[in-house]
Amino acid sequence: MPIMACLQSCTWDKLGDKKDFVLASVEMGRWAFGVLILLWVLFPLANSSVDGLDKVRGVNLGGWLVVEGWIKPSLFDGIPNGDMLDGTQVQFKSVTLQKYVSAEGGGGMNVTVDRDVASTWETFRLWRVSDREFQFRCFGGQFLTSSEGDLISATASSPALNETFYVERNDTRVHIKLLGGNYVQATMNNQLTANYQGLPGWDDNAATFEMTIAANNLHGDYQLANGYGHDKAKEVLMKHQRSFITAGDFAFLSRHGINTVRIPVGWWIAQDPYPPAPFVGGSLESLDRAFSWAQFYNLKCIIDLHAAPGSQNGMEHSASRDGSVDWPSPDHISQTLDVIDFLSARYVNHPALLGIELLNEPSAAAVPLDVLVSYYMRGYQIVRNYSSEAYVIICQRIGNADPMELYQANIGDSNIVVDLHYYNLFDPYFDDMNAMENIQFIYESRVPQLQSLDSANGPLVYIGEWVNEWDVTNASQLQYQMYGRAQLQAYDAASFGWSYWTLKNDRMHWDFEWNIKHKYLLLGSSSMKTPNNFVWLTVTCGVLLCALSGMT
Ligand SMILES: *[C@@H]1O[C@H](CO)[C@@H](O)[C@H](O)[C@H]1NC(C)=O
Ligand SMILES: *[C@@H]1O[C@H](CO)[C@@H](O)[C@H](O)[C@H]1NC(C)=O
Ligand SMILES: *[C@@H]1O[C@H](CO)[C@@H](O)[C@H](O)[C@H]1NC(C)=O
Ligand SMILES: *[C@@H]1O[C@H](CO)[C@@H](O)[C@H](O)[C@H]1NC(C)=O
Ligand SMILES: *[C@@H]1O[C@H](CO)[C@@H](O)[C@H](O)[C@H]1NC(C)=O
After folding, report:
1. What percent of the chain stands above pLDDT 90?
2. Ligand 4: which of 336, 356, 377, 385 to mutate, most ligand atoms within 8 Å of CB?
3. Which band of pLDDT confidence, cut at 50, 70 and 90, is reported for residue 49?
4. Is residue 189 part of a domain?
5. CB count, 10 Å around CB of 38?
6. Which CDD domains match (predicted)?
7. Is 229 inside a domain boundary?
8. Range of the domain at 193
């Protein structure tokens, strides 16, 4: 009885009315709760098809051909001075003046040593030349230079020898000297000059600075390759590419009903085996292997251009050197189109190819919509030039952008897909949500968005990234199962399908294989078909919310 009452009260219209659920759950005995959970967890998932194909039930091969340090931190373990990689943000405080070094106006002018507090003008991004030699990039993009005599200024637009400094470290203290040998000091009138007399000790003197590492969050291909240097980087990456993902993983995926892998690649793959420094070759051969494994285990591949020249989002997974976003320039865009041409020519007739994703996660703040749409249109044409079948996948901008913007853009006529990434993470909005609120968010926010896009009579919808992780601390296995099930229910309704981020990860809750083996994510069967995903969602959502309120 209470089960029926609950199911009936939980219609779609009433989702917002929590009182009903609470009342219903109070009536529920423990047995009823148990049965509900069992029913809900055991129910197979709905699955329907796109153009006669099964929908995509995919997994991303993240951190494989495009490095992401947080996925496998040990890749960076052997880099000398490994906390001073490209893009690391540092601040310097004179130990004699007790003031921070500052690029006036963020760059383009003098450098002073006169700030009590370090903020953007006082923060410099490293460009690493060797493990002891660095260039310092200001907030405005200029580099510190010694080209104006003794005075250090923040006026160089590109770095060369006069912009390269040798850094000696002793714990948190540093000396900075020119390649010519002169040490940099903070003068009594608050300037930064390269004329310290003699060899400074580590006591409180004008050439000694306290270095603070303000941010050290870039661990991508650029940092790895430039940090190790070419030969060692090649060795580390070869080993990684051969061991991180293997044929055995494809067998595992196929056993668990996964039908697609989304494979992030970097732009340098098009110049394999000799890409421009510091990038190293090898990813093309690995991608070839992935296609063979996919064919053998009857999986499809989506090639995802995750890292574009210049970086489209400033993050490590777009191989940004220092956090800047330089992709939206005609040169970079034309180079990117060449990469799409290369990938299309090579893979479009491979039986395992499902589609090509033109660009992952362009930044809404740094990539104007018109620039992106024009790129997508040209990319679509290139893929279509080789194939009328291959799906062309375009990714929504990340940050403040409505995916509807791509539905209205008219990018291509056929087999076009918009990729949305759904994480209940990376936004303070989710910080204080408990398990139930997270699940409610899936049904009350994600599902309606999916419904409106699915019915927009435009491109297909693809949840190309999602994960069974959230900001809830110490959640139980059952709570994870419910959250995972809610997401699967919701994303199964996407017209193209979904792919989990990611196959392997040092953080277990992000690791697909860990989730499956430890039963934190219950995939269910993919064989059952339902006529209407959203009716199905309504019912299971009701069961779920009842069960959750019963738990608290
Ligand atoms: C900045 O440089 C100009 C010209 O070299 C100089 O006149 C001025 O005093 C400098 N300002 C500081 C704060 O050092
Ligand atoms: C490098 O700096 C010196 C002075 O410190 C200057 O004479 C020289 O022209 C600079 N070189 C370049 C390429 O700017
Ligand atoms: C680091 O500084 C301390 C004094 O603060 C000194 O005793 C030590 O020898 C220094 N280490 C190196 C490697 O220079
Ligand atoms: C399509 O292919 C033709 C013939 O190879 C070529 O001339 C044209 O530039 C290509 N179009 C695009 C958008 O690549
Ligand atoms: C989570 O669990 C750990 C280990 O049991 C415990 O130390 C920690 O306090 C818990 N955190 C919260 C927020 O409950």
Report:
1. 84
2. 385
3. low
4. yes
5. 11
6. beta-trefoil_FSCN-like (cd00257)
7. no
8. 89-215
